[in-house]
Amino acid sequence: MSSQLDPGLQPQRTALSWGRTGLSMTAVALLVLRAGVQEHQPMFLIVGALDMLCAILFFATASWRRSALALDKIHAASSAWMAGITALVAITSLAGTWLVLS
């Protein structure tokens, strides 16, 4: 039995969703950074910088997936990579929630 790539559109939708998530995270990061500058709150700046790092990782992943799709060499990302991104997003989300509620 040979393993063939999925000929459907699921890989393209996944790559596009990574790009959209990165774009929305960039918007959130810029808003948090702006609030940190206006309110002179260093914690907002730290969380905003972490959010921007997450956005960069999402854009890098989207770019990698689009490049792999163009070469027909799309494979699942490593679970360690996905776990790392998920942990970073969760930490920045919790930190942002804490900042808003405090």
Overview of this protein structure:
- The protein has 102 residues and is mostly helical.
- It has one domain.
- The chain is 80% helix and 0% strand.
- The protein is built from three helices and no strands.
- It has helices spanning 10-39, 42-70, 79-101.
- Helix 1 (10-39) packs antiparallel against helix 2 and helix 2 (42-70) packs antiparallel against helix 3 (79-101).
- The longest helix has 30 residues, at 10-39.
- The protein is elongated.
- The model has no long low-confidence stretch (mean pLDDT 78).
Q: How do you describe this structure in short?
A:
With 102 residues, the protein is mainly alpha-helical.
Key descriptive features of the protein:
mainly alpha; 3 helices; 102 residues
Q: In terms of topology, how is this protein built?
A:
Layout: H1 10-39, H2 42-70, H3 79-101
Organism: Pigmentiphaga daeguensis
Pfam family, one: DUF202
Main location: membrane
